[in-house]
Amino acid sequence: MENKKVLMQKYEFGNLLGQGNFGKVYYAKSVKTKQSVAIKVMEKEKVRKVGMIDQTKTEISSMSLVKHPNILELYEVLANKNKIYFIMEYADGGELFNEVAKGKLREDMARRYFQQLISAVDFCHSRGVYHRDLKPENLLLDENGTLKVSDFGLSALGVSKYQDGLLHTTCGTPAYVAPEVINQKGYDGAKADIWSCGVILFVLLAGYLPFRDSNLVEMYKKISTADYKFPSWFSPDVTKLLSKILNPNPRSRISIAKMKTNPWFKKGLKSNSLQKTSEQDSPRADPPVVFGPEANPAALEIKNQTDDLPKLNAFDIISLSSGLDLSGLFTETKEKKEVQFTSVHSASAITSKLKDIAQQLKFKIKTEAGGLLKIEKSNKGRKAALAIDMEIFEITPSLYLVQVKKSSGDSLEYEKMLQEEIRPALKDIVLSWQ
Ligand code: AMP
């Protein structure tokens, strides 16, 4: 039991505050100073299993890179043989998400949170740290209602952090992700964060997401084309600003520097207050890392590795977002014999590849319409003809999802053909199989 335990004679554990992507978070008190803290406990084994050792080191190093009034502070890191403990600033006011869940916020409240969010994000960007996973769940409030951005430690993680299905455990939706991130085009972390801030501002003011659809493909389309509507209660000034933030083209999307001169954004801000928060902070050393008796210090060597990150692609989102209802993605009920893959080739290239394979395997094309290819192989024996449906879905203009499924015929024959002939023949166009 973690409760009521004293950690290394330093922190007395209290209640469970929440379950995050990387482990449980507990309330605790410093034995010496009685200061309230939050402790995130990670099982080393779990971290190792999902290949997150490096990411954890990154979490430590990027959390320690940033010290700002609107960023949750990391005080120290403790470790013993089995666990890693992150001792963090305690945010008493819970998640900002809870406020939004009660209903939309007043414009001045939303603006205040947004200004604090931008201040934190601007500060991090100026130090080369990008969050990449900004959403209301990562925004906590302290006892004074001041916004604290959490999980900045995850900022430097690329797609690998999704290997454990982490996306679905957070909010189950890619609704905050910028179109260029979904499109898998090389992207600018700063502009991608600004997009997410725009989605957050929209949610604060509207009480709901700008891009919503039970069908993921439709949702991606809406994100890619910035297809959303402002509710009637949004003021003209905020709609003007949001249109500049939710611009699907990252190059012409507004920068933070420009945003700081925007009249709606500036309202109520003391002049230069954004500037000051960054400048006032003194550079900070890495937090102390303390090891328990059996810990191996080398296991926590801190290394900054924000470069060369693998990019998140839409298939990762789809395949890992199991919290989402994917049923709307497909028109027919999912059968066991259905497989899917993604491809970055054009729809016509995929279609011609599928037709080539059909021809090689002596199938006849029965239907070809709107991305659907129905092929059939007449069977001279007693068995029903083997028929396969292949359907291409556009996720974004540069990413397609292809579904391959037996519609009739012998399952064994189909399975053998799929594994031994169809899959190998598709290898040139497949980005990833589900
Ligand atoms: P995380 O692993 O950071 O996503 O945290 C999981 C949950 O624990 C959050 O959604 C919060 O409800 C809670 N939590 C995390 N960090 C803190 C903190 N520093 N202070 C208070 N609650 C926290």
TrEMBL record:
| Reported cofactor(s) | Mn(2+)
Give the transmembrane region(s): 192-211
The cross-references to SUPFAM superfamilies, in alphabetical order and at most eight, read:
Protein kinase-like (PK-like)
Q: Which domain of life is it from?
A: Eukaryota
User: What's the EC number here?
Assistant: 2.7.11.1
**Entry keywords, A to Z:** ATP-binding, Kinase, Membrane, Nucleotide-binding, Serine/threonine-protein kinase, Transferase, Transmembrane, Transmembrane helix
- The record's region (Disordered) falls at 271-290
Reactions catalysed, as given in the entry: L-threonyl-[protein] + ATP = O-phospho-L-threonyl-[protein] + ADP + H(+); L-seryl-[protein] + ATP = O-phospho-L-seryl-[protein] + ADP + H(+)
Signal sequence region:
none
Binding positions for ATP per the UniProt entry: K40
Q: Which Pfam families does the record cross-reference, listed alphabetically?
A: NAF, Pkinase
Q: Which Gene3D superfamilies match?
A: Kinase associated domain 1, KA1, Transferase(Phosphotransferase) domain 1
For the Protein kinase domain, which residue ranges apply? 11-265
> Where is the NAF domain positioned along the sequence?
307-331
In the record, the note on similarity to other proteins reads: Belongs to the protein kinase superfamily. CAMK Ser/Thr protein kinase family. SNF1 subfamily.
Q: What is this protein called?
A: non-specific serine/threonine protein kinase
